[in-house]
Amino acid sequence: MVEVLKSGLFTTIQDKGRTGYRSLGVPVSGAMDAISAAMANKLLDNSTQASVMEFTMMGPRLQFKAPTSIAICGAGFHARINDVPIELDKATEISENDVLKIDHPDYGNYGYLAVLGGFEAEMVLGSRSFYNNITKKKRLEKGDILKFSTASSEKIIRHASFSIDEHHFNDEAIAVYSGPEFDLLPKKFQKKIMNTSLKVASQSNRMAYVVEGLEDLSAKEIITAPVQPGTVQLTPSGKCVVLMRDAQTTGGYARILQLSEQAICKLAQKRAGESVRFKLIESL
Amino acid sequence: MKQPTIKPFGKQAVLIEWNPSVDNKTLTAVLQVKQLVLKTYTKEVLETVPAYSSLAVFLKKEAKQDDFIDRLSQKLEKIPKAEPAISRVLHIPVCYDPKFALDIEDVAKTNNLTIPKVIELHTKPTYKVYFLGFLPGFPYLGGLDKRLQTPRKKTPREVIEAGSVAIGGAQTGVYTTSSPGGWNIIGKSPLNYFSIAKNPPALLKAGDFIKFIPISKDEYRKIEVEVNVDIYKLREEEKNG
C-alpha cells in the first residue's frame, strides 16, 4: 500500500486506456506519454496492462506501507527517497515507511511511477485510467491510499536500467499522417503547415494541446465526425488543436493531420513555449 | 445513395465516409456498415465510432491496415441497400419548471415566443438520436423546431448538471453527465443517462428516437426516487426508422 501525503499539481492513475466504449462517447484516456509509462513497467517486469501513477510539473509525496520496487520514467523529475536522490529510468527497492518525494522536472511534462504489479485503482469499463464522471476520482488527493496489484513477477530485476532516447525530449519533429480533411486545404496551406515551426501554447492539457503559428490559415468546419487522440484540428480562425488522450470521441473541426502513436508521446512531453514541427510520414 | 469511400485515419484506424449530410437515410447506411464491420472482422476490429455521415473503425495492433481496406472495399460493393430498421421511441420525462429551466425565458425572448409555446414546440417532435459523443452517453439529436434555435451563451457555465435539457444553436440535447457548457438550459430530466453499473452504460443509442414528455416538479421528484432505487420503467414504443 501507498499513502498520498501530497498530491502534486495533477496526479492520476493511468494505464493503456479504455477501449470499447468510444461509440458511447467515452474517451480513451491512458498515459499521455505511453512510451515512458511502458518503460517504467518494463523495468519492473510488470505486465503491459499494469497501471502507473502519472504526474506533471510538480510531483506527489508518497509514503509506502509495504516493501516493493519502483521505477520512475518520463520527464526529468527530481526524486528522493527519505531525502536521498534516486536515479530515473532504473528499478529501485523500497522499504516499509519510505517516503518518496518527487519535485519539478528539468525537462518534459509528464512523469511515471511504476510499482511492482501496478496500482490497484478502481477498474471501470476495463481500465483504471482516471477520467472525470467515469472513475469516482479524477485526480489523486492527500490521504488517498492505493493498494498494489499482485506482483506480476517474483523476480525483481535489481539493476535493470534503460537509457532515455534523447530525441524523445529534444527533437522538434512530430511525425504525422495526412488527416481526412488535409487534401481539402489549398496547396499553399499544406506547405505552410509542414514548414512552420510552431509553439506549444500554455492552455495545453490531457484533452488537447494548442500549437501556435498557423493563425493566418483557416479551415471550414465539418459535419461532426469521429476524432481520436493525435487528431490535429484546424479551426476557421486558424487555431490549431492537437487532441490528446482525454479527447472527446467526435468533433466538428477540420481534421488536417493525424499524429503517429509515438508522436503523441513525444508531443505530450513538449512544454509551453517549446517548438514543434509537423513532419509528414510518406504514405505507403 | 453513392458508395461510401474508405481511407486511412492514421495508422490504426480507417474512416468510411458518405456524402456529408444529416439525414435518416445516411444514418441508416452508417449503422448498417457499423453492424457489418463489427460482425465480420472481430479479429481485427477494436471498436467503431459512428457519426452523422461517417464511421471510424479502430483496428487492433496486429491488423494490417491496407489489406483491411482492400477487403472492406470489396465487401461494401456487395452490400444490399439498407432497409430502415424498426427503432425504439423512448419517452423522456422533462420538467420545464423555472426551478430547472434557467434560460427558458431567454430562449422565449430570443424567439418572440411565450414560455408555454417554447415547451409546446420542444415536446412536439420525435427526435432522432444520430450518435453519441461530446460527453459519455450524450445524444446528437436531429429535429429541433427552427423557431427554438438560440445561440449558445456568450459565457459558458462552469457546471451544467447531469439531466439538464438544453438548446445550443440549431441543436437540442440532454447533458448526460455534469459538464461545463454554453447551451441554454430549458428543463431537467430525472433519468440516469450514463451509469457504469449498467450494460450498456448509456441509456440511449444511435438510431433511437426520443420524445420529451413534460412533467411537473412533483412528478420529477417521484421519478427521481424511482430512478435512484432502480424501479423506474422507461416508456417506449416502436417506429419505422
- Which strand order do you get reading across the main beta sheet of chain A? 12-19-16-17-14-13-20
Structural class of chain A: mainly beta
CATH arch. level architecture of the largest domain in chain A: Sandwich
Can you summarize the main beta sheet of chain A?
Answer: 7 strands, mixed, barrel
Tally of separate domains of chain A: 2
Radius of gyration of chain A: 19 Å
**Any idea what the CATH architecture of the largest domain in chain B is?**
Beta Barrel
The total count of helices of chain B amounts to 5
Q: What share of the residues of chain A does DSSP label as strand, in percent?
A: 25-35%
Shape of chain A: globular
Question: What structural category arises from helix and sheet content of chain B?
Answer: alpha+beta
Into which percentage range does the β-strand content of chain B fall? 25-35%
So how many helices of chain A?
Answer: 4
* Overall pLDDT metric of chain B: 94
Structure write-up:
The complex is a heterodimer of chains A (284) and B (241). Chain A has 284 residues and is mainly β. In chain A, 11% of the residues lie in helices and 31% in strands. Chain A has helices at 34-43, 167-170, 187-195, 261-268; strands spanning 2-6, 12-14, 52-56, 61-64, 68-74, 77-81, 84-86, 92-94, 99-105, 110-115, 145-146, 173-178, 198-200, 208-212, 225-226, 231-234, 240-243, 250-251, 254-259, 275-280. In chain A, the strands form four sheets. Chain A has a seven-stranded mixed barrel with strand order 12-19-16-17-14-13-20. The longest helix of chain A has 10 residues, at 34-43. The termini of chain A are far apart. The mean pLDDT of chain A is 94. Chain B is 24% helix and 31% strand. Chain B contains five helices and 14 strands. In chain B, the strands form four sheets. A five-stranded mixed beta sheet of chain B has the order 7-6-13-5-14. In chain B, strands 1-2-4-3 form a four-stranded antiparallel beta sheet, covered by helices on one side. Chain B is elongated. The A-B interface holds A 19-26, 124-125, 133-134, 177, 179-180, 222-226, 228, 230-231, 248-250, 258-261, 283-284 and B 7-13, 15, 17, 20-22, 46-56, 58, 66, 131-138, 140, 176-179, 194, 196, 200-202, 206.
